[in-house]
Amino acid sequence: MASSSTTSITIFILPIFLLTCLSPIVLSEKCSPHEKKALLQIKQELGNPSMLSSWNASTDCCSWNGIQVECSNTKPYHVSQLELYGLDLPAPVNIPPSIFNLLDLEQLFLFKMPNLTGPIPSQITNLKKLSILYIFSTNVSGPIPDSLAQIKTLWSVNLSGNNLSGKLPPSLPSLPTISVIFFKGNRISGPIPDSYGSFVSKNLSSLTLSHNMLSGKIPASLRGLDVSFLDLSWNKLEGDGSVLFGAEKSTAEITLAGNYLSFDIGKVEFGRNISRLNLKHNRIYGKLPEGLTKLPHLTRLNVSYNQLCGPIPQGGRLQGYFPIDASSFANNKCLCGPPLSPCK
Predict the structure, then answer these.
(1) To the nearest 10°, the Cα dihedral for 19, 25, 27, 29?
(2) Which pLDDT tens digit goes with each residue over 42-67?
(3) CA 262 to centroid of chain Cα atoms
(4) Where does the signal peptide begin and end (predicted)?
(5) Nearest in space to 288 (alpha carbons), one of 266, 305, 261, 273
(6) Neighbouring C-beta atoms of residue 220, cutoff 10 Å
(7) What is the domain class of 28-336 according to CATH?
(8) Contact between 61 and 36 (Cβ < 8 Å)
(9) Nearest to 116 by CA among 91, 134, 98
(10) Domain residue spans of the chain
(11) Is the preceding omega at residue 342 within 30 degrees of 0, hence cis?
(12) CA-closest candidate to residue 238, choices 220, 256, 217
């Protein structure tokens, strides 16, 4: 009887003992099994780079060192941010498809990886909660998916410094909360879509399309574009760039350098918030307007290498305010007056 009682007590106590011993480990594991599996597949799809050596099945993925994996702070826990950068990829690989199994991902950063190649997969639309998408300084190629507009939570998109080609996706302006768009330094071609003059989001603050192969005339619809920072420089854009200005606009920095824009600058009205204005290397003509002297925040100005003529307006920050100097007005048709030579 004693032996039987001891056996019964042991059978009863043993599960409690095991649960007590193991529960701290179980309870401390934030990473869900399916997300850990996805992350380990990502590691394998990248060729098992040494910088991901801390990624292993025996530890909580929310505590992995090195490359950043962040999890939410509240239950149910999920991987909310994945940041992969500077990885020593052993061979060229495409963007790992398993990334798109992290359905609760809110921020995705892939950058400084020359061996990251191939297109942006269509499965990116699986990430319905994504607010920040940064893929830059890689060799990712192909078009920017028009389907990005299906991710209604997108707030900031940076696809700069890749080998992306094709046309600008016309549906991006439909994103309801988009604030920042950086597509600098790719091979994007064709015209700027008319839709870029009517963003649904009222929070768009920055649009950078510089150092691409954009061509065609500036759409008249861009008269409705009002952003703090606008950079269309070093493309092949033509036509009337004056639609990008307006006394009522809040733009602080505008860079149109290195295009074929042609318009009479004397008819342009500038918003009072402008601090940096770079129009060099275009075909802009006319006389510089007196309104330039009334810009209280102007710190940089460059209108060199155009077809401007007449006296430079005197006053404001146009003379003696470094770095606005003679080089800012050089190589025009017949500009004169300080800081250039006197008018005849």
Answers:
(1) -150
(2) 999 999 999 999 999 999 999 887 67
(3) 29
(4) 1-28
(5) 266
(6) 12
(7) alpha beta
(8) yes
(9) 91
(10) 28-336
(11) no
(12) 217
Q: Could you give the C-alpha distances from 204 to 172, 199, 255, in angstroms and in order? A: 11, 8, 17
Q: How far apart are CA 78 and CA 62, in angstroms?
A: 9
Q: How far apart are CA 290 and CA 266, in angstroms?
A: 9
Question: Counting runs of H as helices and runs of E as strands, what totals does the chain give?
Answer: 2, 22
Q: Extract the tokens encoding 59.
A: 């530890």
Long-range contacts of 232-239 (CB under 8 A, 24+ apart): 232/192, 232/256, 232/259, 233/257, 233/258, 233/259, 233/278, 234/210, 234/258, 234/259, 235/209, 235/210, 235/211, 235/259, 236/260, 237/192, 237/261, 238/262, 239/263
Q: Contact 199/173 with Cβ under 8 angstroms?
A: yes
SS3 of residue 307 by DSSP? strand
CA dihedral 144→148→153→157, nearest 10 degrees, is 0
Per-residue pLDDT tens digits for 141-156: 999 999 999 999 999 9
Tokens of 245: 């200005």
